[in-house]
Amino acid sequence: MNNRKTDSLKLLTIVQITHSFRSGVISPILALFIRKQGYSVTQIGFIGTAWILGYLIFEPIAGVVADRLNKKYMIIFSIVTSSVIYASYTLASNIFHFYFLAFARSSVISAYTISNKAMVAEILPTSRRGQTYGRYMSVASIGGILGPILGGYLTNLFSYTVPFYIYAGVGIISLIAVLYMKREGEQTEISLTTDSIKIRDLVNKTFLGILIIRMLYIFNLIFRQDTLPIFLNESTNFNVSETEIGIYMGIVRFSTSLSQLFLGTLTDRIGSKKMVVSSLFLIGTTNVIMIYVTGTYPLYSLGFIQGISIAAANLSMMIYLISIMPKGKTGMVMGIYSEFENVGGLFSSPMIGMIYDSFNPSASVLFVSSILIFNSILSIFLLSS
After folding, report:
1. Tens digit of pLDDT for each residue in 12-26?
2. Domain boundaries in the chain?
3. How far apart, in whole angstroms, are the C-alpha atoms of residue 336 and residue 9?
4. What are the C-alpha distances in Å from 229 to residues 25, 101, 186?
5. How far is residue 19's CA from residue 4's CA, in Å, rounded to a whole number?
6. Packing angle of the helix pair 129-140, 296-324 (nearest 10 deg)
7. Between 247 and 168, whose confidence is greater?
8. Which of 118, 104, 133 is nearest to 71 (CA)?
9. Using DSSP, how many helices (H) and how many strands (E) does the chain show?
10. Do the Cβ atoms of 24 and 151 come closer than 8 Å?
């Protein structure tokens, strides 16, 4: 990589570290914070639907805009507005406030997620792409290791409102790194003809395959965000506190960060397809095991394994996508990719919540696990080697 791209990747890494820290601080307590207001898991699932709806509407727009405007300004906009929105959670007093805040935060974070992914795709070298991306993600996710532990601990020590204020404050600090970032890639002229050609070129088995796999994989993300903290807190097998949930999530993120150092190189050697298939199967089976283990230490051990498999799934899917995307349309491709994530989220969020309330907590875990194992088998046929 040339010096300009190297500097840009370093600054982007700093921005991503702060972003992972902010999201980590909130991750163990957000669903529990809403649950403590007296709402059911089904209602929390529909709040998740409002969250996904924001992405569904605005990520495609962000993808198109990112190919034409300065991605740095989009990231600045997202950081400032999301900081205000998360601080506003402390003022929410009814279910409609939570619906609005969920929709608002995903709408503005769309500008960050699409711009960040597009910039990474433009900066990564063509040779040893998996190795470079793995190292980037490993370093970038460091902030997410301490975040959940701190968020859970401060909640137990003080109150549920403290992590929201930390999220807002750290976001403002991260603007310093963003201001020094350089715009990579060339802006594309607005041309409907060019866009239609690119979209038509993408509509093939290879691209559609990774979109479908990603859509089903989102069931796991939604489960871990909206339902798993509640399951761990209320399950008789665990009945863990917010601090212990934070430690578990910190362990997951630690093993995710650590494993990405070598998973990128492994992906370069054996190919993305094998990594996708094996990681999805491993996530599904470890989720099932979670139903039958008891105690915090077995949970922490399981979290370490889950972190590795989650890292392998996310990294290999992204490397696969980057390898097949056309040049000059990184924003558009990331927008389409994210849109399929959102479609999966629209279905999974309320379904998991209703299964949790209508049957039992373990049924929701088994449901997500079956989706992941099915997705692993599906990957064998949909992805090219």
Report:
1. 788 888 888 998 999
2. 3-180+204-382
3. 24
4. 13, 20, 43
5. 23
6. 140
7. 247
8. 118
9. 16, 0
10. yes
Tokens standing for residue 31: 């669903």
Tokens of 362: 């373990």
106-153 per-position pLDDT tens digit: 999 988 888 877 777 777 666 666 677 777 777 777 778 889 999 999
Burial of 94 (0-12, 13-18, 19+ CB in 10 A): exposed
Residue type, 205: K
Neighbour-count burial of 19, counting CB atoms closer than 10 A to its CB (0-12 exposed, 13-18 middle, 19+ buried):
buried
> Topology of 3-180+204-382 in CATH?
Growth Hormone; Chain: A; (1.20.1250)
Instruction: Outline where 128-227 has alpha helix (H).
Output: 129-140, 143-157, 162-179, 192-202, 205-222
pLDDT above 60 for 184: no
Residue with tokens 């209508």: 358
Structure tokens at 241: 């506190």
Q: Which two tokens stand for residue 126?
A: 């063509």
Place of tokens 């999220």: 167
DSSP structure class, residue 90:
G
CB 161 within 8 A of CB 40: no
CA distance 229 to 248: 10
